[in-house]
């Protein structure tokens, strides 16, 4: 009996204490706050609301230019001159065409008057009267068109139709120009816009009328408000970006064409209401996005659903589900499980840390 009790006692003394659960090292860092009032920052440049080429409406040889790029011009100011000898034949042709059109109109008017009188006496049919009236209408339109062509052929001087600035020179003195060929680039005075190129991954988050703040590096401390006026329907074939035009409110003389602008599109959230995480930290719980959160008390993992505001190229903007300072798994999200005890470590490379 004594021997048996001794064996039992020795066996109980030989049992080891249970080992503590081993913690798995994971790359985990606190999430950072971002300004939720800013939906995106872009670089752009200042343009006029209306930019267009200026050209003659008739062909001829350019004999004089009265303005140079960068000059301010007034409405009605002469800008360039064609050689009057060149369009003289066009003027003669236009005059002959006008004379012929007026003659056809005179004949059509006389024929209409005769047929209307005969129709009242039942001497011609309704169909014949309608044909005569149609011929008269065609002759009248032809006369008006020939008159406008003759008026255009008389003008050999290019004038500014609005106040503005000459932005470029596209023809030289002595050059023979075709009708409609550009002579100058022109930007109207008044409204100003800023053009920005937006990546295709972010253009879906921009809407017409969205507010923005704009700063000019050339004028520190001076900001402008703007609103999205137009979004290009297709991406540029070379850069694969979308051109977004923003109308600038209360533009002043300091907004020079071509200036560089820093544009901050406004979002729907107040400042510091969102957090940003690396794209590698995002996990999916079924069809819903989620992240692995390290609980502060026991350093165990908890899979928490989140609401994504915007997907970027390297990061994700989270609108709800996370708080500033909470530690989440940044990499290797598919190699961990719920309730697993972990030891947070920093990324091995500094460039992998969230900016």
From TrEMBL:
Residue ranges of every copy of the Multidrug resistance protein MdtA-like barrel-sandwich hybrid domain listed in the record: 57-182
Domain of life of the source: Bacteria
Keyword flag NADP: no
InterPro entries: Beta-barrel_RND_2, MdtA-like_BSH, MdtA-like_C, RND_pump_MFP
SUPFAM superfamilies: HlyD-like secretion proteins
Coiled-coil blocks: 98-149
Cellular localization per UniProt: Cell envelope
The Multidrug resistance protein MdtA-like C-terminal permuted SH3 domain, residue ranges: 275-333
Keyword Mitochondrion: no
Transmembrane segments: none
Major location (coarse): other
Keywords: Coiled coil, Transport
Similarity section: Belongs to the membrane fusion protein (MFP) (TC 8.A.1) family.
Entry-linked NCBIfam families: RND_mfp (TIGR01730)
Name this protein carries in UniProt: Efflux RND transporter periplasmic adaptor subunit
Taxonomic classification: Bacteria, Pseudomonadati, Pseudomonadota, Gammaproteobacteria, Lysobacterales
């Amino acid at each position: 009996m004594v021997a048996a009790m001794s064996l039992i006692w020795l066996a109980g003394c030989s049992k080891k204490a249970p080992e503590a659960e081993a913690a798995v090292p994971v790359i985990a860092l606190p999430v950072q706050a971002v300004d939720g009032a800013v939906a995106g920052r872009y670089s752009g440049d200042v343009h006029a609301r209306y930019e267009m080429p200026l050209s003659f409406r008739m062909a001829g040889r350019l004999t004089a230019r009265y303005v140079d790029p960068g000059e301010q011009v007034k409405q009605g100011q002469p800008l360039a001159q064609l050689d009057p000898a060149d369009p003289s034949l066009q003027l003669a042709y236009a005059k002959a065409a006008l004379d012929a059109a007026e003659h056809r109109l005179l004949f059509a008017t006389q024929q209409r008057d005769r047929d209307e009188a005969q129709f009242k006496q039942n001497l011609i049919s309704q169909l014949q009267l309608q044909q005569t009236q149609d011929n008269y209408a065609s002759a009248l339109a032809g006369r008006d068109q020939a008159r406008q062509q003759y008026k255009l052929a008389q003008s050999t001087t290019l004038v500014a139709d609005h106040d503005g600035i000459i932005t470029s020179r596209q023809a030289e003195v002595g050059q023979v120009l075709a009708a409609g060929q550009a002579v100058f680039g022109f930007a109207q005075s008044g409204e100003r816009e800023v053009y920005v190129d937006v990546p295709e991954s972010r253009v879906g988050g921009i809407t017409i009328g969205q507010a923005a703040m704009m700063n000019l590096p050339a004028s520190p401390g001076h900001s402008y408000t703007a609103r999205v006026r137009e979004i290009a329907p297709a991406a540029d074939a070379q850069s694969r970006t979308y051109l977004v035009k923003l109308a600038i409110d209360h533009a002043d003389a300091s907004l020079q064409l071509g200036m560089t602008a820093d544009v901050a599109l406004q979002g729907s959230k107040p400042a510091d209401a969102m957090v940003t995480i690396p794209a590698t930290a995002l996990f999916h719980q079924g069809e819903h996005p989620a992240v692995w959160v390290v609980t502060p008390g026991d350093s165990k993992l908890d899979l928490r659903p989140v609401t994504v505001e915007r997907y970027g190229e390297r990061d994700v903007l989270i609108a709800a589900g996370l708080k500033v300072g909470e530690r989440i798994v940044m990499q290797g999200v598919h190699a961990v499980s719920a309730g697993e005890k972990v030891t947070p470590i920093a990324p091995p490379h500094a460039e992998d840390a969230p900016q």
